[in-house]
Prior knowledge:
- By secondary structure, the chain is mainly beta.
- Helices cover 2% and strands 36% of the residues.
- The protein has one helix and 21 strands.
- A hairpin with a 7-residue loop joins strand 3 (66-72) and strand 4.
- The chain is globular and about 50 Å long.
Amino acid sequence: MPEDSIAHIDFKELNKKAISQPLVKHMYTADPSAHVFNGKIYIYPSHDIDAGEAFDDLGSHFAMEDYHVISMDSVDSEGIDCGEALHVNDVPWAEKQMWAPDAAHKNGKYYLYFPAKDYDGIFRIGVGVSDTPDGPFIPRPEAIKNSFSIDPAVFENEDGEYYMYFGGLWGGQLQRWRDGKFNPDQPESPVTFLPKDDEPALLPYVAKMSDDMLEFAEKPKELQIIDENGKLLLAGDNDRRFFEAAWMHKYNGKYYFSYSTGDTHFICYAVGDSPYGPFTYGGRILNPVVGWTSHHSICQVEGQWYLFYHDSSLSKGVTHLRSVKVAKLTHCADGSIETIDPYGRNLKF
């Protein structure tokens, strides 16, 4: 929710009406990627700090430096800060902005995937490896080859293959890759090179992972998100088109690709029959939260599905100081997902 629309909010009252409370309160966390490993919940969030950077549409004020893993014995238990799992100073290729990460497990190893800006100011995606789900993670000396943009999410399919989904507009630089290579022109503009409103929207990317989980096994491909008529969503369709925060889960044989619409602040989903899509727009999962960003993950815990998300209620609306939360998620009989109102149905901004 934009900051100019929250001046009237009584945060004490809002927090009473909120459907969930922050999982940890001693630090600010965001962009939660949740997984169940070894019978416990592990959440891989961004670690928000106030670095004093100027606010801009490139996201310069999101100047995160490290990652902490949060563990939980159950969704009702206390969130435990497992300590620093990785710091930007330990990543040879990365200079700054450790944005939304994800994690995966394969053959006894745990992998932390993260975006960061390299020393040329270009977002790449890196990977760190650990023997335990809470780290610390030892980073690879180079970013993943052919990686770009932000918000990696790694999905384990039932056939044992893993796929990474990624991409983000504006500060996430996806629009600078339209010709297959990074366009550095007009570096201060977050919207240069975006398609026109009546042109197809920019799309997220997907790539199958290599057997060792350290590289792409193929060149990343665009992931099509289409409307009910089979047409690509348009760039001007801000309430439905992809902006950032890719996630994938599978339910009843269908693949659900979910994402944030960015400047309209919805978490939406689209449904397909393959990890590669195409995906047909399905609806909204989460209505706007306090704070500009919305970012989530979907995880099944002991037979129940949950949405992990964040808002800026603990910081009283500071967009870059966010807190991770969790709420039940409901799949309906027709395959749709019930829309969640984060502060109750009667509270309107």
